[in-house]
Structures are given as structure tokens and as C-alpha cells.
Amino acid sequence: MNYIETAETQRANRRFIKQSISTPMLTREREMELATRWRDDEDEVALHELIRAYARLAISTAGKYRNYGLPMSDLVQEGNVGLMLAARRFDPERGVRFSTYANWWIRSAMQDFILRNWSIVRTGTTAAQKSLFFNFRRLRARIEGATGGTLGTSGRKQIAEELGVRYDEVAAMEGRLRQSDQSLNAGVGEAGEDEWQDFLVDERPSPEDIVVQMRDNETRSRWLADALKELTAREQTIIKERRLRDDVVTLEALGVELGISKERVRQIEHKALQKLRVSIEKQVESPADALADL
Fold first, then answer.
1. 21 lies in a domain?
2. Which of 45, 124, 177, 200 has the maximum number of C-beta atoms within 10 A of its C-beta?
3. CB 10 within 8 A of CB 77
4. pLDDT digit string, tens, across residues 115-128
């Protein structure tokens, strides 16, 4: 998807970039002091100075991801979010420069933003797919430059092996990166009035089919209720427990409940089904339809 920045936002971005680049770099000692003040005392003045000094890292990283079709300003903002997350977790006593530590957080924040907004179709849901998404173009260019041709099957296998993903994931990602999202409301052809969504098949039942099905179900339920009235109390119990429940009661359990053997329960069940069939045959032409759930 493509975003267009206005002239006003472009001017604001240029001012921010100019200010960030002109901000002096911090010495190791000053960096340590600011990070310690923020960690121990939650000194926001120290935090702001630390963030401003390294905002250039967010700008530099955003430039590496500018070819994904997202606004540079949004990428920089996400990088600043990563920068603040890094400041929250940074331990100045470990002897690592803040810039080194913050780079990972900035890159991670930008990559997550790109994956959320690059397409309405979710991409890179696993760590391996995320690595494939952000490294595919670079590896493809390297392979095609070495072979002087297209990627091909061998090239896809090479990418799969290098990134530790399946071949089919490489092929799928290649197709995703080759095409962009398109609206279903887009017209088919330049002069036609049809939209792409007009050609989608709705496989759900039509409203008429739903109404007919509901009426048929009500009718079958009425037939069955009338037929059940002709059974004895014990026969009704057995049919309801054995045929009209989702969790069917076993013959043995029913036998214990009724004080008879499970074989006797089976005989009564068989006889009751025959009586139901005879009763329903008097009401309908196709009793099999009414007894489909029994």
C-alpha cells in the first residue's frame, strides 16, 4: 500500500531530521550519567537529553526500511518508541554503549510496525517468517546477481536453507512481495461498471433456503413429538437418552437406571423405534426424513 505525505508533514520531517543530526553526540561518561539518573531517579530531563542525542539512530534505521511503502515519518516515530523502550530497560553498569543496545529495540519496533501495516493480510506471524520477509529481497538480489538470471527453484532452496525455513514458505513470500493489496471495490476494466466483489461466490445458504430449513425442522419436530406420545414412559426415556441427546447414554447405564439388563434396554429401544416409524408413516410420505436423527 502506498502513502502520500503532505508538503506540511514533509517540512516537519525535514526540521526534525535537521535538529536530530545537529544534536551533539554524547560521551560515554555523559551517557552513563543520564542513564543512571533516569534509572535511579526517573529524571525526565535526563531521559529527554538521552533520547534526543540518539534520535539520529531512528532516522538512520528508518532509511533502511523506506522501500516498504510506509511514510518515513511513521517509521521514525516507531523508531523513537523503540528508543524509549531501550532507555527504560538499559542498564548503564553493564559497560555497553546505549547506542549499541538501542539499535535492536529501534529495529524491532520498526519491523513490527511494517508487518502490521504493510498489508491488510497478516504477514510474518513467526520469527522465521519475519526473518524471511525482511531478508528475502536482499538474498534474491544477491542470488540473481551471481547467476545473472531469475531466482528459480535452486535459488529458493538456497534462501530456505540460509534462513532455516521451508521451501514452500519462500515461494509463498515471493508471491506476497510481488503483489500488492487490491480493493474488492475496484472496477473490472476501465469502462465496465462491475467490481471484483461481484464475482465472489457466496456459498452460504440463501435466506430462502434458511427459512425452508427452519420450517422443515419445526415440522419434523412436531411429527416426532406426536409419535413419542404413543410410546410408554420407559420407551420414551430410552429413546430420549439414546437418540435425542448429544452425549448418548450407554445401554449399561440405562439398564442400571431402569433396573433391567442392557440387552433388555436394546430390545425396548428397537421396539420403540419401530413404533415411531409406524406412527410417523401415518403423518408423512417419507418417514426416513423425519427419522434421520434417530
1. yes
2. 124
3. no
4. 888 765 556 567 77
d(CA 288, CA 291): 5
CB 136 within 8 A of CB 174: yes
Helical (H) or strand (E) element with 151:
none
> Which of 123, 139, 25, 13 minimizes the C-alpha distance to 75?
13
- Residue carrying the nine cell digits 511494517: 114
Domain check: are 37 and 97 in the same one? yes
Please list, residue by residue across 105-121, b when 16 or more beta carbons sit within 10 angstroms of its beta carbon and e when fewer do.
bbbbbbbebbbebbbee
**Does residue 23 share a domain with residue 110?**
yes
Cβ pair 237, 244 in contact under 8 A = no
Local structure of 181: helix, strand or coil? coil
Q: How far is CA 167 from CA 61, 120, 125, 158, in A?
A: 29, 24, 17, 9
d(CA 193, CA 189): 8
Question: Which positions ≥6 away from 211 have C-beta within 8 Å?
Answer: none
Q: List the grid coordinates of 11.
A: 517540512
| pLDDT tens string 42-87 | 999 999 999 999 999 999 999 888 888 788 888 999 999 999 999 9
In whole angstroms, what separates CA 97 from the centre of its chain? 37
Model-wide pTM > 0.70? no
Which among 177, 178, 181 is positioned nearest to 133, based on CA atoms? 177
Domain annotation covers residue 191: no
Which range of residues forms the domain containing residue 95? 1-118
Pair (41, 55) in one structural domain: yes
Domain total for the chain? 3
Listed residue (7, 99, 19) closest to 52, CA to CA: 19
Alpha helix stretches (DSSP H) within 90-151? 98-117, 127-147
Cα four-point dihedral sign 205, 210, 216, 221? positive
